[in-house]
Backbone:
């Protein structure tokens, strides 16, 4: 039975060179291999029985390197497309509308927003929601009615005169 220390000593350098060829970055290669060995240490009692424990460590190291590459790519995309300019606060009318929409049942609110804000036709909303067009029309009618009732109850600033 090979000890983990012996396995680590004999395998770390070759695996790091292999990962370096994959990542083209010595630091990333070492980090990925080190992470893989950390995982191997936790399972050494089973891995020692494998025909080739180094193959398991290599696979894990490759997966670690890929995962880190994906996260880095996502971070770069986020940085590239992240809006740097501040977004203006919503107008008072939009705040009142958002508060009124929040009082609607979720389906009605979703239908109203998709139809009137996102300009989606009833047919597309029905397809997206997996319901009949008549159901969407009903949700829109109920949503509009509830909004009309809500706004009928809200005093307007120009009514104070």
Residues:
């Amino acid at each position: 039975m090979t000890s983990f220390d012996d396995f680590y000593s004999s395998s770390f350098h070759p695996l790091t060179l292999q990962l370096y060829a994959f990542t083209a970055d010595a630091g990333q290669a070492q980090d990925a291999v080190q992470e893989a060995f950390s995982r191997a240490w936790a399972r050494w009692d089973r891995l020692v029985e494998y025909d080739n424990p180094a193959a398991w460590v290599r696979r894990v190291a490759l997966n670690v390197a890929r995962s880190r590459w994906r996260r880095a790519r996502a971070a770069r995309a986020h940085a590239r497309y992240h809006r740097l300019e501040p977004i203006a606060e919503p107008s008072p009318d939009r705040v009142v509308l958002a508060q009124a929409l929040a009082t609607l049942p979720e389906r009605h609110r979703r239908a109203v927003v998709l139809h009137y804000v996102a300009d989606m036709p009833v047919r597309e909303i029905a397809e997206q929601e997996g319901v009949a067009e008549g159901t969407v029309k009903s949700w829109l009618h109920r949503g509009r009615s509830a909004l009309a009732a809500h706004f009928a109850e809200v005093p307007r600033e120009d009514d104070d005169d």
Q: What stands out?
A: The chain is about 75% helix and 0% strand.
